[in-house]
Design goal:
Number of helices: 6
Mean pLDDT: 91
Largest sheet: 2 strands, antiparallel
Number of domains: 1
Strand order of the largest sheet: 1-2
Helix content: over 70%
Length: about 140
């Protein structure tokens, strides 16, 4: 348990709310990807940010953590879409932009909004808009 959660609300309600809202509002595949961003990218961003983060871009956010988040979200999207969508260059474009969306949704948590809520909801919203332009999930 984090020190901030000791005297306040834990991250679990935000985690459940973020995952539930994603599953309710977004296409199934987009919801799954956005929840995987939360499950994998959030801890890896934090790990690399704490361990190697010397270039601060925001309070409690480092360039190294953001880059780790980008690559994690990119790889999640790339591997997921390669197994569920028609193979083509549009998947690569979708995955690269998804990495940016996922990393950006992690940075929003610097504004005192729990990232367990912002990552799946903002990522799902961004991926839904992206899917309108680079259609991967019909």
């Amino acid at each position: 348990m984090r020190r901030s959660e000791k005297d306040g609300v834990s991250g679990l309600p935000f985690y459940a709310l973020g995952a539930s809202l994603s599953l309710f509002f977004f296409h199934r595949d987009i919801a799954i990807i956005s929840i995987m961003f939360l499950v994998f990218s959030d801890p890896l961003s934090s790990f690399f940010g704490v361990l190697y983060g010397k270039d601060k871009i925001m309070p409690n956010k480092s360039l190294q953590g953001a880059v780790a988040g980008f690559f994690t979200c990119y790889l999640i999207t790339l591997f997921y879409t390669m197994n569920t969508a028609t193979i083509g260059t549009h998947i690569l474009v979708f995955a690269i932009i998804s990495g940016v969306i996922g990393a950006s949704s992690e940075l929003v948590s610097a504004f005192n909004i729990d990232d367990n809520l912002t990552i799946p909801v903002l990522s799902g919203l961004g991926l839904t808009l992206l899917n309108d332009f680079v259609t991967v999930f019909p």
